[in-house]
Write a structure and sequence with these properties.
By secondary structure, the protein is mostly helical. It contains 18 helices and twelve strands. The structure holds glutamic acid (GLU).
Amino acid sequence: MTTTSQKIRTRIAPSPTGMMHIGTLRTMLYSYFFAKQSEGEILLRIEDTDQSRKVEGAVESLEKMIAWAGISYDGEMTFQSQRLDFYKEYVEKLLDNGTAYHCFCTPERLDEMRKAQQAAKKPPMYDRTCCDLSAVDVKARIDQGEKNVIRLKVPRSEDISFDDIVRGRISFSTNTIDDQVLMKSDGFPTYHLANVVDDHDMGITHVIRGEEWLSSTPKHLLLYRAFGWDAPLFAHLPLLLNADRSKLSKRQCDVCVEDYIAKGYLRDALINFVALLGWNPGQGSTEEIFSMEELIIQFDLAKVHKAGAVVDSKKLNWMNGQYIKKISVKDLYRQTLPFLTKKEFYDSTEHSEAFITKLLTVEQERLETLDGIGEENQFFFHDISTDKELLRWKDNSDAETLEVLERASEILTATDEQNWTRKKLEELLMDAAGEKRGDFLWPLRAALTGEKRSPSPFDCAWVLGQKETVKRIAAAIKMLS
Ligand code: GLU
């Protein structure tokens, strides 16, 4: 095992199989926090040996997301597919020392074997037909051009144990481990071989990865042993779960980081949220808002939870709202504009920056995603038609409602531009309302919005501006007279 006096070196080893899942973001963040807090290094290696799973554009998307997350890795990004000769060289060593062997079984034969095992209710495992072929035989078959793969010779009836940083002591019986394919017939290494050879070659001290890789670890430990190398330390991160505790699928694209961004979640909020999926500072702390710098200092790999972490979208919305509250209105405007331009109710020729900025000032307190801009308050963007019933507060008469609106109109018409501020409007209208707040404010608010729920009438008047405010009140007055 690696000693702790060594410089810590972690890696991010994504496979370019599609858009980035939030589980991958979490693995990256934890690896990054851990490396940074110990002044270690973090490398980036693209595990692209499975050509059939490769997705066009996935590497670019990974790079983009890594940069977006603010993760700076050390050295150059490497690609396993560009090092095929390197893995060949290493697998030869295993063939030479007898820990790996050539297997000539055809896919059809393997399929029959599996079916027979299934019928006999036995776990599907390679039956080792090719394990003890003589060297002469093997050479002759290779010379004849017979297709073959290279398998690891897994010792039988042994326990492979290791101390996982998160999960503690873990043991697997080798009897449950198949003779893994290390090199495919097309000369491409499998994940297991390439992963172990690279982690060793790159001097990785800590392998941090999702729990779904846990069952691969005994295979990897056998490979380290077969090569005569020390293994790194392992930390397997808990599964991510849906609210109903089912496993969060990798294929569900609504859990892709790009998708969250597209829905209007802020970078810092997403990072904060993802960092807390499986870890929190503990010790009675209820603090939940952490910057990247704070996470680097406070994160503790040894305190990552074993139990699956539920991805709670309500919590994410709450957290995003906290971050939205913290940024300046100017920044909020900049970040919401791309969302706003896609809205049907928005017209860039009609709705000025000043107007949107006012709207955001009012919405900022309650906005949970950037995409939510204007959604709840569309009456700001187009003409409204309010109905008489809505204008009435409790059982007030039309005459009483009319009187209120006329008074409001008078006050607001007399207010000069300088006084058309959030604060001043609130003061003026609250004064006018006196004790009877509902009687005064409700009809005014309904006249301005045509809605049962909306921001306060002062805020609405402020955003709408004097001309539109007076116009809307006049329309309501007309309806009542
Ligand atoms: N390539 C694997 C993945 O896509 C990496 C597993 C590991 O970290 O060993 O997650």
